[in-house]
Input
Amino acid sequence: MNPSDITAENSVLALLTICGVIVAVACLIASEIIMNAKKKHYPEGAKIKKPLPVILLQVASAVAAIPLVISIVLKMIDLFTGNRENLISTVKLLGQGFAFSFGIFIFTILFSLPLGLLVASGRMSKIKTISVFFKTYISILRGTPLMLQLLLVYFGPYYLFGVTTGNIQIGPFNYRFIATVIGFSLNYAAYFAEIFRGGIQSMSKGQYEAAQVLGFTKSQTYFKIILPQVVKRVLPSVGNEIITLVKDTSLAQVLAVTEMFTQASALASAQVSVMPFIVAGLFYYLMNLVIETLLGLLEKSMNYYS
Output
């Protein structure tokens, strides 16, 4: 086929895609306007049967979007079948980077959750000095960029105390990885602390009084009565932070840790292709999908009254 013919076909497909998107959006907006006008004549929450014009507009919207779907499918086919060997090597290299990203994620969760609970307890302390200290900690960690905190953890020991960190090694992990985990843990502990504090303070005073009447000590009341309820209440908010953490692991590149996003950037530059970014995005999405599923099951298991 003549290259000029291919260019002409691409131009026609691009024009159809643009027109299709415009028509699809216009049809959806029109269908929403009709439905909202119909809802005004029914009580709130009532089930309303879609009128024929709305159905036709939604069908037209779906048909108009076909060129966009075809364009995306063709691009994906071209990206993933153009060079299979290149794709396989990309997935393998990104898999190695994913191992580092997953390690940062796991260690951060293990350290930041208990630290967050400790910080929340300190923040609620009746001793003013302790309360102010942890309040300041939370304010600083939440008020400054995570990237800046990572740089301070890594370079701070040398510039402040003259300690050389290049030779520090704990098992298979060098100080770059250790500094990344420390920075992430300190940062996320501050966010988790405020979530835990909100959950603890939402508990009614009557539960503490009832526990005291039943002969529970303060520690028994906290760990056996209050904390299980707090976990149930804060689980959705903690889940949001955990999902954000998966994506934030890409910031480890600032310390030259070869996590997945760093690997994807290097591969995209070497291959002059967007494919490594798409594959990396799939890795991130699948990891978050697994986490969402697990959190959903945990939340369902703690829903005692359903």
User: Anything to note?
Assistant: Residues 84-301 form a domain with the MetI-like fold fold (CATH 1.10.3720.10). The chain has a mean pLDDT of 81.
